[in-house]
Amino acid sequence: MEARLFVIGALVALAVSGAVAQPQISSAGPDAAYERVLDRARQSEQAGDLAGALSQLETMLRVGGDNVPARLRAEAVERIVSIQAAMTASGSMPRAARRLTSLLTAKTFWMITLLAMLTGWLRYARLHPRTGATAAFFEDLTSPADRRTEASLVLTRTLLNHLQNPLPVEIATLEMDMMPGSEEPGFGGLQSALNTSPIDGFKLADRPMKVGGIEFTVRDIAGAASSLFSRPYAATLTGWLSESEHGLIAHAELFDRRDPTKNRSWRMQTRKGGHGEAINDLSAQILVDTDNSKLTHSWKSLRAFRKAIGLRQSAGRRGLADLQQARNCLEEAVTHDASNWIARFNLALTLCRCGEPEIALQHFDVLDKVIRVAWKSNQDPTTACSNTPAFQDVKDHLRRFPECAFLILYNEAMALAALHTSGATSAALKELRRLATLREDTDESAYDDEPHRSLAGALTPRARIEMSLYAMGAEANVLAASPHLRRQGHRFDTETAERIASLLKTVQHLCAATQEQHWRSLQTARAVALAAAARVAVSDGDPDVARTHLEAAIAAEPGFVEAYLSLAELHIDATTACDKDWHRAEMLLKRVLELSPDCSRAMSLLTRLPVRSPIPTSSVV
User: Fold this and answer.
1) Dihedral sign for Cα atoms in the order 573, 574, 577, 582
2) What is the pTM (predicted TM-score) of this model?
3) Are the beta carbons of 554 and 591 closer than 8 angstroms?
4) Where are the domains of the chain?
5) For 287-303, what is each residue's pLDDT tens digit?
């Protein structure tokens, strides 16, 4: 019996020590050996090794046979059934997991997934494009291929910079024309600085949009790839610029996927090398045809106006040739669109500079009538009026900046004074004195007719004071320059001299406490009044007082031509003229010609100087 038990234990130990970890039955007794096999199978089952636990239990029953105690056999059979049921339930999961893992690692699956995601994104981006602005990009085909991208960016920015409208007329931006001498045409003209601001709705595209060529660089390919992940703009403005033997060709196209009725295209041809002309023409067409122009409904009128303003602003430095050309351009602008009121206003000022105040007065009369109709339309919206952009802009100006109506009256008075007739001078002085009363913030107004009575009441305190300052300075100049007001030979009559002195005193004390708010208008009016007072002093035989006034005028307005001319003339006429006086006079006259190259009075005074050796350029006045 003991020999049999020993053999059975040896066989069990041999089986357990194999690959299936067969149970071992020690010599401590058969029941203890079977208990250890059951414990080891239980531990394997708890550790998740169901196959190992099952193998140990089956081996124990097979080897032990009938020698396994009934209690242990029943427990082993129960564990075997439980383990087999668990393995049967989880038998399908490893296969599904393996199929899923195989699918996820397949390249085809990932390619299909990426394509589906990209298709979904592109569809979303197409249905929901960016609507904040119109993306613009123009390709410069006149540049070499290796520099085309940079040149195209410059071209696009330049064209977008041309899509601008003038800023409204504001009192703070008024400037008096002081380039010619006080007795020369156009002196004292008053206008707002023509600053501009870009229109809303256009911006440089995030990346180049090639429209004119087929060649691609690595940067082009990278840009095209990155564009797949960017929402496109709902509207785009694209174009190109090319040059051939026939000239320069510019093309632009506006595409709006939301509203196809806004789609436009433009094409134009100019002379070779006329890049600036092509950009100016193309931008004018785009600005007008997209209903963004506040000036005019004619792109040709806008083009001519832009060119004229550039010429007018440079006329002081390059002479009357540019001034005459500016007049031609402004007349062209008004011809293409008679409602372009800003072009008409600048034409009137240019005509004054060209010595034709009679025609200028006709344009001011047209503008005054436009102001009256616009004011009536603002008061009564049912009044029949024009719907052009320019007229609507006049109405808007009157609502926001009523001083523009008085700006026309001021310049009309200066044109009247330029006629140099007794009646015209009296009418000019009357209007300037009415404008000067605007500083009196009272219920009573010097204007008893509409619309100026209501518009005067709508002026801001700053506008009242500054219009008064300019009017008083202009009145002092008219009084000093008019030959009809000197009744005692070359001397001023007492009334005129006292009026000029009173105007100077009023200007200097009008806004002493708030001069930082009116610095430009105060210094300009003060300079003009000082020059007028200097002429009175000269006529009274007091050159020292005159010289002091003129030097103060130059300090107030360093570009005041009249002050330089009068001061130079004082040095030339000095009874004790010495070399220093001649030298100073020559330097003053050279400064005048720098400011106003065609000043005839300066050239005449230069002929009165003795022949001298050239003056060093480092000399200072």
Assistant:
1) negative
2) 0.73
3) no
4) 2-91
5) 889 888 888 889 999 99
